Amino acid sequence: MQHCPLCYHDNISQVFDNRRRHFFECQTCALVFAAPGSYLLPAAEKQRYGRAGRDGKQKQLAQFIATLLQQLQTLQSNALEGLNFGRVLAPALLLPIQQAGHQLHQYDPFFAPEHQLLRRQYDFISCYRVFEHFHLPAKEWQIIVQALKPGGWLAISTPLLQSTAMFAKWHYKNNPTHVSFYQPQTFAYLAAHSCLQLIFAQKDFVLMQKAS
Ligand SMILES: [Zn+2]
């Protein structure tokens, strides 16, 4: 029996399939996910990230973190310690963040697998275009929530699926490293089942805060 890799319920239905991949929707948490049998092998996945992902999104990633820090500084003016989870920012782009007094640690399962960083807690965690790559979203979610300090902020960039009716034509699913897709109600479900408050979930941006 197939079950949802985020909430583990088995109330799922198929939303789309082509010759290569089958996609299912969970009726409980609204996650849309690729059938696990279609995942790329880790070596192929790493090669793809190395070739296209790392350099291509550096500017956007730096902008995402800079905007997040600006927003958080309007709420609390102290220096912040954060974790950039899943996609590493190049050292040169880290510099302005450090010069502003903040500390940003970085974890990437392929290029910076520093697992000890995941056992600490942070004022904020940023996940830029990371959630769609999760093979085991429940496990990653648990790690992220535990690594947030009480009152800490979680900022996620991932294109939200507005309705499964548009899934067949949604180009975002065509990248074979994209395997987990979220609807706004998926994050409402996660907030309701974790100690987090959902502040914002629109287009491709999600902001949550852990209860203090
Ligand atoms: Zn689910």
CATH architecture of one domain: 3-Layer(aba) Sandwich
Please give the count of helices.
Answer: 5
What is the name of the CATH topology of one domain?
Rossmann fold
- Determine the mean pLDDT: 94
CATH superfamily of one domain: Vaccinia Virus protein VP39
Organism: Shewanella fodinae
Keywords: Methyltransferase, Transferase
Protein name: Methyltransferase family protein
GO biological process, one term: methylation
Can you lay out the helices and strands and say which pair or pack?
Blueprint: E1 12-17, E2 22-26, E3 32-34, H1 42-56, H2 58-75, E4 81-85, H3 91-99, E5 103-107, E6 122-128, H4 137-146, E7 148-157, E8 180-181, H5 184-192, E9 196-202, E10 205-210
Parallel strand pairs: 4-5, 4-6, 6-7
Antiparallel strand pairs: 1-2, 2-3, 3-8, 7-10, 9-10
Zinc ion binds at residues 4, 6-7, 9, 26, 28-29, 31.
Organism: Shewanella fodinae
Protein name: Methyltransferase family protein
GO molecular function: methyltransferase activity
How would you characterize the overall build of this protein?
One of its GO terms (molecular function) is methyltransferase activity. This is Methyltransferase family protein. This protein is α/β, with parallel strands linked by helices and 212 residues long. Helix content is 29%, strand content 26%. It has a domain at 41-159 and 186-210: Vaccinia Virus protein VP39 (Rossmann fold, 3-Layer(aba) Sandwich). It has a six-stranded mixed sheet with strand order 5-4-6-7-10-9, sandwiched between helices. It has a four-stranded antiparallel sheet with strand order 1-2-3-8, with no helix packed on it. Strand 6 (122-128), helix 4 (137-146) and strand 7 (148-157) form a beta-alpha-beta unit. The model has no long low-confidence stretch (mean pLDDT 94). It binds zinc ion. Zinc ion (ZN) binds at residues 4, 6-7, 9, 26, 28-29, 31.
